[in-house]
Design a protein that fits this description.
The complex is a heterodimer of chains A (261) and B (348). Helix content of chain A is 34%, strand content 24%. Chain A is α/β, with parallel strands linked by helices. Chain A has two domains: 1-94 and 183-261, P-loop containing nucleotide triphosphate hydrolases (Rossmann fold), CATH 3.40.50; 103-178, no CATH class. In chain A, the strands form two sheets. Chain A has a six-stranded mixed beta sheet, with helices on both faces. In chain A, strands 2-1-4-5 form a four-stranded antiparallel beta sheet, covered by helices on one side. In chain A, a hairpin with a 2-residue loop joins strand 9 and strand 10. Chain A is globular, with a radius of gyration of 19 Å. In chain B, 71% of the residues lie in helices and 1% in strands. In chain B, strand 1 and strand 2 (162-163) form a beta hairpin. Chain B has 348 residues and is mainly α. Chain B has two domains: 29-308, ABC transporter involved in vitamin B12 uptake, BtuC; 311-348. Chain B has 15 helices and two strands. The chains are: A alpha/beta (261), B mainly alpha (348). Chains A and B meet through helix 3 and helix 4 of A and helix 8, helix 9 and helix 10 of B.
């Protein structure tokens, strides 16, 4: 049932949804980047967002994390209204994101990048002591390092990594701590076919309680890692459905898949 | 396990030589060189170090570091004793000095709160505005700051049978403070907070997306830098015996920036190198040119260093060391490591 306008249904479902966007819009001056977005994503659900450039996909992510405040509307995370919370408070509640263009700490090593990610969602962020080898966050960073296949370049500066490795680290940063919901912004962009396979493996290996939204241009990747698909066009939600429904929808084919497919 | 002993083991031999030299320096140096050159270099170096912590690790260039030192310097005659008959509450020294440092750190925190939401040139402008306002406020306010004249007659303490303004004890006092903050900075750069600060410098937006309150980390950096500058401010007023608006003028604020940049912002030794160069020029440029041309010399030195080595004197040293190493290795088997990396490691 998609018609969840009924207040009672909403109340009952509160807490069951990882993410609820209610009439969210975002304007940049006269430009309407997001218009009246209503989305509800269940806990553990994996959703792909498709759409051409400028459809508002990344702006949607920025509205969810709080990178940009929304112009109107409310954002709820696991039932809690987070619309007015700063980015770091949303992250501490279990939200994570990656960036389309890697946002890494170039002058620090891989393990220090991961350590910072683990420390960011725990206590003692202001500690003036060096993290010792027995530090739990160090151990977690080490585990993450292996998880995203970066063990060989553990102590290398991030600026020396290959593009693919930087994309892997970008994902590693988003997996730190205990994520409950992750926003992946085109994680496969620019990856080689082999790296794409590795990426799909990493995504499929995530514990089932962790839901995510993935922005992906590559339909093959998107359809393999998502249960549901949302199509965006000109800042609006255009279609929602299962991958099969979306793929076979004539309107979607006309608009997005085009004559090439 | 990383024990203190293993930290000591990691220190390059060059640092031990430097430490030994600094310890025996007053035994062969004249009083002038011990006090006016040695002591003053360490004080200016500490103020510039507080700027290096903010700018080098945090990416925040503050022109108000001399003002922070000035707050501590003014606290001494106001709450302690002075000879001009304004205020002078006569607090005992063991309360007064920590209190002065704390007041300076709190002031620095306020400067941080005002300025950290800005970036780059705007941080410089806001901190400059704070420095200028405090300067004029101190010069025009007679009730608290005794206006243009300021305070004189600030005496150094005497205990353990030592008068601490005598050149040798004062030098060691400055050396102890400078060494403490230098080591703390080297250690702290790899601490959790040190890493967060450098990461915020590189990518504040991502740090927010990792759960860090970027503003709070920046403000805390201002607090820590305030402890360093405040300590230097206490030593500065003991050094001069007086403090006036001239101590915290805009020209001095610029000098601190020049010292830090000429020395180099990449490593905590930079500010001390810059301070040494500055103090030597300040004292001996007069032998070569007119007193009023001093600032021209400083300005030209600044231009030359920035032009030839964006990393300041540290960068020059590293280039020279790299060149020496290449010469040593000439004809021998080629080195695998790049020289740049090696010299980096030497300093780290």
């Amino acid at each position: 049932m998609k018609s969840r306008t009924d207040a009672l249904t909403r109340l009952q479902s509160a807490g069951q949804y990882a993410l609820e966007l209610e009439a969210v819009s975002r304007h940049f001056g006269a430009l309407v980047a997001l218009a009246d977005i209503n989305v509800a994503v269940k806990a553990g659900e994996r959703r792909a967002v498709l759409g051409s450039n400028g459809a508002g996909k990344t702006t949607l992510f920025n509205a969810i994390t709080g990178d940009f405040p929304v112009t109107t509307g409310r954002v709820r995370f696991f039932g809690e209204d987070v619309t007015d919370l700063p980015v770091h408070d949303r992250i501490r509640r279990g939200l994570r994101r990656t960036y389309q263009i890697s946002q890494l700490f170039e002058n620090l090593s891989v393990i220090d990048n991961l350590y910072l990610a683990c420390r960011g969602v725990s206590q003692n962020r202001f500690a003036l002591r060096r993290p010792g080898p027995s530090d739990a966050r160090r151990a977690m960073a080490q585990t993450l390092c292996e998880l995203v296949h970066l063990q060989d370049v553990r102590d290398a500066d991030v600026s020396t990594l290959s593009y693919g490795q930087q994309r892997q680290l970008e994902i590693g940063l988003a997996l730190a701590g205990a994520p409950r919901f992750i926003l992946f912004d085109e994680p496969a962009a620019g990856l080689s076919p082999t790296e794409r396979v590795e990426l799909i493996e990493i995504l499929q290996a995530l514990p089932s309680h962790i839901g995510y939204i993935i922005i992906e241009h590559d339909m093959d990747v998107a359809l393999r890692v998502a249960d549901t698909v949302t199509m965006m066009h000109n800042g609006r939600i255009f279609k929602e459905g299962t991958p099969e429904e979306i793929e076979s929808d004539p309107e979607v084919q006309a608009l997005y898949l085009g004559g090439g497919h | 396990m990383t024990t203190p002993r293993s930290y000591l083991g990691q220190i390059q031999p060059g640092w031990w030589v430097l430490a030994a030299f600094l310890l025996v320096y007053p035994w062969f140096a004249t009083n002038f060189f011990t006090y006016q050159i040695g002591g003053y270099t360490l004080i200016l170096g500490m103020i510039a170090l507080s700027l290096m912590v903010l700018a080098g690790y945090g990416g925040m260039v503050s022109l108000a570091q001399i003002t922070v030192a000035g707050v501590a310097a003014y606290t001494l005659p106001i709450f302690g004793e002075n000879s001009v008959g304004v205020l002078g509450l006569g607090w005992p020294e063991w309360v007064l000095y920590p209190f002065a440092i704390l007041i300076a750190a709190v002031f620095s925190t306020l400067v941080g709160l005002i300025s950290v939401r800005t970036e780059g040139i705007y941080t410089i402008m806001i901190t400059l505005a704070i420095a200028v306002s405090f300067f004029f406020f101190a010069r025009q306010n007679y009730a608290l700051f005794n206006g243009f004249q300021g305070f004189s007659g600030v005496d150094a303490p005497s205990f353990w049978g030592i008068y601490w303004r005598d050149p040798m004890p004062f030098y060691y006092l400055c050396l102890a403070c400078a060494a403490f903050f230098f080591c703390a900075t080297v250690y702290g750069a790899r601490s959790t907070f040190g890493l967060t600060l450098q990461a915020i410098r590189d990518n504040p937006r991502r740090m927010g997306a990792l759960g860090y309150n970027v503003t709070a980390h920046r403000v805390y950096a201002f607090f820590l830098a305030g402890l360093i500058a405040g300590t230097a401010g206490v030593l500065l007023v003991l050094f001069n015996g007086r403090v006036s608006p001239g101590t915290i003028g805009v020209d001095i604020a610029i000098d601190i920036l020049v010292i830090a940049v000429v020395g180099g912002l990449r490593h905590p030794i930079g500010p001390f190198l810059g301070a040494l160069a500055f103090v030597l020029l300040e004292n001996f440029a007069i032998d070569l040119i007119d007193r009023e041309r001093f600032n021209t010399v400083i300005g030209m030195a600044f231009l030359l260093v920035v032009f030839f080595s964006p990393d300041g004197l540290i960068g020059l040293w590293q280039k020279a060391a790299a060149k020496m190493r290449r010469r040593d290795n000439h004809g021998a088997k080629p080195t695998v490591k790049s020289t740049g990396e090696e010299t980096q490691a030497d300093l780290a």
